[in-house]
Design brief:
Layout lengths: L1 E4 L3 E3 L1 E14 L2 E13 L6 E17 L2 E15 L3 E18 L2 E12 L2 E15 L2 E14 L5 E14 L3
């Protein structure tokens, strides 16, 4: 995990958990949700903090072989816990696309924007997925989130990380 603010760039150790789900409610229309929790540790200090992001939304999908794309609007909450918990919630917009490189491999990208109380920002991700069986893929992606705190302190923060995981396509 890497953090950059207006004055400095610092690398931290951290780990996290990401859960994502979507469910089709009509042809090309679906609801979706994400939960992304990270714990970041200042090296050799014993000090850590948590960043949690929750999303619930509705989207529209389309495809034209070998491309798949979707867009959606969502409610979003960003919670930062550094000993005292602070939470901002608002709306977000998301766009995503993928291209099949091989019957079992795909490249994907995502772009999002959030406007939540005193926090605004954008994020993007680029990744690669490989299906190990027809309904299960392993993936790796690189994600950057940029936040501006609009509470008068004019603090900008960039969080970047690498995610590795498993994607299950449920019937």
């Amino acid at each position: 995990v890497e953090f950059k603010d207006d004055q400095s760039r610092v690398d931290f150790d951290g780990d996290g958990l990401s859960l994502q789900a979507s469910y089709g409610i009509a042809q090309r229309v679906f609801v979706y949700g994400d939960y992304y929790a990270r714990t970041v540790e200042f090296q050799n200090t014993g000090i850590d903090f948590d960043i949690d992001t929750t999303r619930l939304g509705i989207g529209i999908a389309g495809s034209h072989d070998p491309f798949t794309f979707w867009g959606g609007v969502n409610w979003e909450q960003v919670k930062v816990d550094t000993g005292s918990s602070e939470s901002d919630s608002g709306y977000g917009i998301r766009f995503s696309g993928s291209v099949r490189l091989h019957p079992r491999a795909f490249l994907y990208g995502e772009l999002g924007y959030v406007d939540a109380d005193e926090l605004t920002g954008n994020d993007w991700a680029l990744g690669l997925g490989i299906y190990v069986v027809n309904t299960t893929a392993i993936f790796v992606d690189y994600r950057i989130q940029n936040f501006s705190d609009n509470d008068g302190a004019n603090t900008d923060l960039e969080v970047s990380d690498i995610r590795i995981g498993v994607n299950f396509d449920l019937p």
